[in-house]
Amino acid sequence: MNDKIGTYRFATEPFHTDFSGRLTLGVLGNHLLNCASLHAQERGFGMGTVNEESYTWVLSRLAIEMEEMPRQNEVFRIDTWVEGVYRLFTDRNYAILDNDGRPLGYARSVWAMINMHTRKPVDLLGINGGSITDYVCEHPCPIAKPSRIKVHGGEEAATLRARYSDIDLNGHVNSIRYIEHILDLFPLDLYRRRRIRRFEMAYVAESYYDDTLSFLCQQPEAGEETYSVEVRKNGTETVCRAQVEFGQPCSHPDCESSAPGQAS
Amino acid sequence: MNDKIGTYRFATEPFHTDFSGRLTLGVLGNHLLNCASLHAQERGFGMGTVNEESYTWVLSRLAIEMEEMPRQNEVFRIDTWVEGVYRLFTDRNYAILDNDGRPLGYARSVWAMINMHTRKPVDLLGINGGSITDYVCEHPCPIAKPSRIKVHGGEEAATLRARYSDIDLNGHVNSIRYIEHILDLFPLDLYRRRRIRRFEMAYVAESYYDDTLSFLCQQPEAGEETYSVEVRKNGTETVCRAQVEFGQPCSHPDCESSAPGQAS
């Protein structure tokens, strides 16, 4: 095993699944960010270690592409590694594998490091004598890099105020909560007919408690099932952009039995 | 160790804390329900086992009382045991303990079992020859039993539609999501000044995708900090009631350092 790759094991808990009994994208996103944090920390580049020096990691982009989501009680693992380090950004990739090591999907993330006082980006190659490059690792991640998400027009699909549950330790709206709010824009019926094949986020600015968040959703072109969403705070400023691609549901014969909901 | 008590270990993950760096009540609630499920399953009374016989557990009441919430990265454990079994209900208690076995808080829950087809309650003493009573265990749980929550009047503090993220495998709004929505009724400033000492839920009816949920909140009497909340669906029918008691923040000297938020 390549020792530059961190491996973390999980089980899909009952309250971490959606109506179809599959792990939710929000919980998977949490796991990915946790794995990043653990893997960096184990190598002296974690939030904790870095915080003492007044630096912190900031997530810039996240793309998740899943062939299949783990089912309730299913054991799976996440492998994570650093693909590249540049002056202001580092690319961290992930493979999500089932208990037999079969890939269920992959993810790519882009991170910057900022000085917590000045909020300015830090030169990654200047930290710890550039030793972060020692962890760069070649390993296949067969999904497209995060794209440049553009949202043209689009209608306001929802508006909400950032509440207590949205706010994380840094006083910002939690990166994963945006994903959950965006997933809530789509009707349950769409999730019954399709599954999310690829989900991409570009984080542009922070939002805070009591900010009004509006969600502009651009409908897909005819014959496509890819939605673009822009989240704005207080009417004008872009907070993040997302691209949500729905695909055919899993064709595995077992999946017929995962149809939603018992009679109730 | 009393073998009728199930013990489960957890660590407080970074994305499971609120702005103050403490475990959220929602995540703790999920853990409690998971422990109940595991403990029952290990003894042949789990949802899975019972589901094959067309029965399922339904949470009726939940009361959580915490002296202190686990902090980020803190390891803690949950002990759970059955306090009593009656014809239609069973009482399951919990202790939440830190890594040294010091109690952080306790919880009490009341469960019924229903037939999934008829939705009618099942006589617990008639299942598996009444063997569920073998697991009854005397163990201290020094918090008050769930009370009869009454909400008089109260103003409509929020209204929302049940969305994708609210719905669980049974097609209902997830029991824990109500807790999260209720916590979001209170301003962040209240959480800065106080912490939740006791939280109680009484589950009355199920709600479903696209139901309109309204949250009626009764303000506390002068000098008190206990709020009563009633959740109604589609204007009239009561779905659940909650009682939220805020108390003094933790007086432990370490807690001064857990003040919310770095400058940002």
Q: Ends of chain A: how far apart? A: 48 Å
Mean pLDDT value of chain A: 90
Helix content of chain A: 10-25%
Largest interface: A-B, 46 and 46 residues
Helix/strand/pairing category of chain A: alpha+beta
Biggest sheet, spatial arrangement of strands of chain A: 1-3-4-5-2-7-10-9-8-6
Write the layout of secondary structure elements.
Two copies of one chain form a homodimer.
Chain A: E1 6-11, H1 25-42, H2 47-52, E2 55-66, E3 75-85, E4 90-98, E5 103-115, E6 155-161, H3 175-183, H4 188-193, E7 195-203, E8 212-218, E9 226-233, E10 237-247
Antiparallel strand pairs in A: 1-3, 2-5, 2-7, 3-4, 4-5, 6-8, 7-10, 8-9, 9-10
Helix pairs in contact in A: 1-3
Brief descriptors of the model:
homodimer, 264 residues, alpha+beta, 10-stranded antiparallel beta sheet
How would you describe this structure to a colleague?
The structure is a homodimer. With about 260 residues, chain A is of the alpha+beta class. Helices cover about 15% and strands about 35% of the residues of chain A. Chain A contains 4 helices and 10 strands. In chain A, strands 1-3-4-5-2-7-10-9-8-6 form a 10-stranded antiparallel beta sheet. In chain A, a hairpin with a 7-residue loop joins strand 8 (about 210-220) and strand 9 (about 225-235). Mean pLDDT of chain A is about 90; it is low at about 255-264.
